[in-house]
Amino acid sequence: MGELPADGSGSAHDGSGSRRGTGRTEPELSRRLRDAIVDAARARTIAAGWDGVRMGGVAQAAGVSRQTVYNEFGSKAGLAEALARREVDRFVGEVRAALDAHGDDVRAAAYAAIRHTLAAAADNPLVKAILTSARGGSDELLPYLTTRSELVLAESSAALLEWAGRHVPEADPAALAFAADTIVRLVVSHIVLPRSPVDETADQLSHLAVHLFHAATTRPAG
Questions:
Q1: pLDDT 10s digits, 180-222
Q2: Helices (H), the chain
């Protein structure tokens, strides 16, 4: 497989920021190159764990040279940072999509988002590591996953809160924020110590989510 050019070699330029014959700008080509490398690192991490990832193997899988990987990310630690950031963005984006797909149906939206999270953690050890800051494994990747776990909890809560704010507009903001944070933390606790099949857990937690959202709309007497 031919290497994706990282330095402009092998492609002519017309002075407009695009490479003749590709129709793509330099920033787009750079993004596509980095995406291909991170995709390769992600696949190898899921298959063999971060300890089994080698820069040369990532380069080969991405169709680039080993030096290109170092040029783009500086070190294996730099690649770990990019991988963790990508996984957070991917995961939170999927949570938002699951919520938005069900409009005003609070129960269905909560179920879809919770089920997706539980299933993703069960199927993808990298997602589970980020969500739970799982100890063990590579010392080099762990700090990024640990940091990202707090970020993904905050961003997942924010996604749920943003969605609930649109569909439960009469709720007290502070109570709604507490409900969103509670739901996310409960989901993570069931990832760490699962008790039931994914569908059953998602059903029970979505029922609880509806209850918490409803409680957020109830003003205390007096």
A1: 889 988 988 888 788 899 999 999 999 999 999 888 887 654 4
A2: 26-48, 55-62, 66-73, 76-100, 106-123, 125-132, 142-167, 173-192, 198-216
Q: How far is CA 92 from the centre of its chain?
A: 5
Unique residue bearing structure tokens 């739901």: 183
- pLDDT higher than threshold 50 for residue 163: yes
Domains annotated for the chain, with CATH where assigned, are 28-74 (1.10.10.60), 83-217 (1.10.357)
Nearest alpha carbon to residue 121 among 152, 79, 144: 152
CA 144/CA 161 separation, integer angstroms: 25
Residue carrying the six token digits 């509670």: 182
What value does the mean pLDDT take over residues 81-88? Answer: 85
Q: Which two tokens mark 74?
A: 């500086």
Count of Cβ atoms closer than 10 Å to residue 56 Cβ: 10
| Rounded to 5°, angle at Cα 116 from 176 and 151 | 60
Rounded Cα distance between 159 and 195, Å, is: 26
